[in-house]
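Late entry, nicotinamide-adenine-dinucleotide complex.
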Amino acid sequence: MTAAVRDVSIFGEAIAYFNEAADLLELDSGMRRILTHPTRQIIFSIPFQRDSGEFEVFTGYRVQYSFARGPGKGGIRFHPGVTLDEVTALAFWMTWKCAVVDLPFGGAKGGVTCDPATLSSSELERITRRYAAELVEVVGPDKDVPAPDVNTTPQVMAWFMDTYSMHVRQNQPGVVTGKPLEIGGSRGRVEATGRGVTICTLDQMEHMGLNPKKAAIAIQGFGNVGMYAAKFLAERGCKIAGISDVTGAYYNEKGIDVAAAVSHAAKFHNLEGFDGGERISNAELLVSDCDVLVPAALENVFTSENAPKVNAKLIVEAANGPTTPEAASVFKERGIVVIPDIMGNAGGVTVSYFEWAQDRMGYFWKESEVNERLEDVLLTNLREIRAIAEKRGATLRTAAYTLAIDRVVKALKLRGIYA
Ligand code: NAD
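Prediction complete; structure with ligand written out below:
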């Protein structure tokens, strides 16, 4: 989802979180300067022909923020609100997200300013192929590895992979992740982000002494991430008291029947008309009576206005950037624990890494193997973040940035700055 309109630079705001951790690490000004500048920003025109024969030109972006720890990694977003500022911020976040879970990747992100709702499948294919063709020299399994993001599907990844492979005259499934299984995708990738949210939530609840059988969980968003998080948490015996999507929210203090909600959403494509709970507003869900809140929809949902009214003891950020810096300060003052997005939703990029590794080996794992490795990666790093937070008296967000920045800085120092 693209950011709600706020009159601030998204990249500028993202740097605020970075600075807090950089202060804690006593990072010198030269290193700060390097880390707050993207390595490469690419902007290009995408001429394309409508099915009607008419020509249009869209703008495409790829920002390769850092290569310190490996090839770039990050999704491609097709949305009318895509800007260079947004793509840069997302590439910046990808740098820390990959580092916080210790993947051998840098950070990148791409996008096209277009409205896929107005595009036919063949128009979408033409835009994707031209976008990929413009990037042939700068992406690749050892250069930069895109993935799906808002409005880009496994099919879009398949077209991207095919276009790149045609240009380099060899099959290169490792150039993108999030592909369909038939052409080098990984088992477990589709569910990976929601599974990762579940792993982080259960571990943090245990740490905080919240009984998963008794605590109430509310989840905002019932798309890929929110729906799988609800499903897996319910399967582990948790009570999902609230769910929502763009059509509205539902609350049931006895617990929502998640399987019924999943069937409803599969049948009607959203939750409209779901009768398994009291209908409340989306705003009410965020301040509802619950112990754990999982924002899994949009950016900037917690603000200085609603943060003081949040009842949850734990927030697990499944969406990217759901908490404004002002809301983060309120949560800190109120002692509300927040697992930050770069950790909370890192399950997706972790299984993308597994996909890239499997493509390069040409050997594909069973789903149980993917899930076991995912749990190991997430728990190892979540526990490390927690230890840093406890040692330094910092929030989990600052601790996560501290761990990520420290890893990137160590890699940069070992390689040396080629200045
Ligand atoms: P999606 O499009 O599948 O689902 C988004 C959901 O949010 C939908 O159910 C939609 O109805 C709901 N929604 C939209 N506006 C809402 C509102 N105002 N109130 C309540 N619900 C609303 O998207 P997704 O893939 O599930 O991604 C959700 C978030 O997770 C995004 O921030 C995305 O960047 C992030 N994320 C996704 C992945 C992934 O693997 N899909 C990985 C990392 C991060």
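DSSP finds 14 helices and twelve strands in the chain. Will revisit in the morning.
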